[in-house]
Specification:
It is built from 10 helices and 10 strands. By secondary structure, it is of the alpha/beta class. It has a single domain (about 5-230), classed as Rossmann fold, CATH 3.40.50.300. The radius of gyration is 18 Å and the shape is globular.
């Protein structure tokens, strides 16, 4: 019997988007690309429950999102938005602890001598006692991304996750994302304008134009479509170093 997708989006229409259909299985990464204003972030907000639906349904596993409480939704998915909204009055450690509301075990191992793979991955192991207000944009982005994976949710939604990251950090995050999907079966939906990053981490890419999905396929299939090239005006060359 086929496994139910982690996320199912069925004929969803909401403010700025029309008749969106796709699904994401455990361990799969789906990318949303398109020009500015094409509806990518609106799709993420509709999927997360932040944007009311006019038509259609969103399912988390077998549960319709409209039947779930805010707490149940939050326990299932984690959304990282692109506005660097972070609680400046908290330390980095306190901010990360907000994500562990449903699972305190991650922070029970904390001591001054214990190294944690996630903190090292996002280069935050020496930042724990720093105020979030003192962080640069890149440091805030890494803190927000780390919080998403501290949470151990089944579904992680990422809006422009490589914003403010340098080239080295972007590659490092791409490697981490692929490893996390293999090891933890996390389902990922991300929005990005970085086509090299999309090629490296996404199994499936959806192309949006003025709120409508105009194409769907693997990154290689998408980049070969004249319609997509004309719509996005993108030219991607191979990068052998990735």
């Amino acid at each position: 019997m086929p496994t139910r997708p982690i996320l199912s989006v069925e004929s969803v229409s909401a403010r700025g988007i029309t008749s969106i259909d796709f699904s994401v299985h455990a361990g799969q990464c789906v990318g949303l690309i398109g020009c500015n204003g094409s509806g990518k972030t609106s799709v993420l907000h509709a999927v997360s429950g932040l944007l009311p639906l006019d038509k259609g349904c969103v399912f988390y596993g077998q549960s319709k999102i409209s039947d779930l409480s805010h707490k149940e939704r939050a326990a299932y998915r984690f959304l990282v938005m692109q506005d660097h909204s972070i609680y400046h009055e908290l330390t980095v450690k306190e901010y990360l602890m907000l994500a562990s509301f449903f699972d305190q075990s991650w922070f029970q191992q904390f001591s001054g001598k214990i190294k944690n793979d996630l903190l090292e991955q996002f280069e935050l192991d020496t930042f724990l006692n720093r105020s979030c207000a003192s962080l640069s944009l890149g440091e805030k982005q890494r803190t927000m991304l780390c919080q998403a994976f501290v949470s151990k949710r089944s579904l992680v939604l990422l809006d422009e996750p490589t914003n403010a990251l340098d080239v080295r950090q972007t590659r490092r995050f791409g490697h981490f994302l692929n490893a996390d999907r293999r090891e933890n079966n996390t389902a990922i939906v991300l929005v990005s304008h970085d086509m090299h990053f999309v090629q490296n981490v996404c199994d499936v890419v959806l192309v949006l134009d003025r709120g409508v999905m105009i194409a769907c396929g693997t990154p290689q299939e998408i980049l070969a479509m004249p319609l997509v090239q004309n719509t996005l005006e993108i030219w991607v060359t191979s990068d052998s170093s990735n």
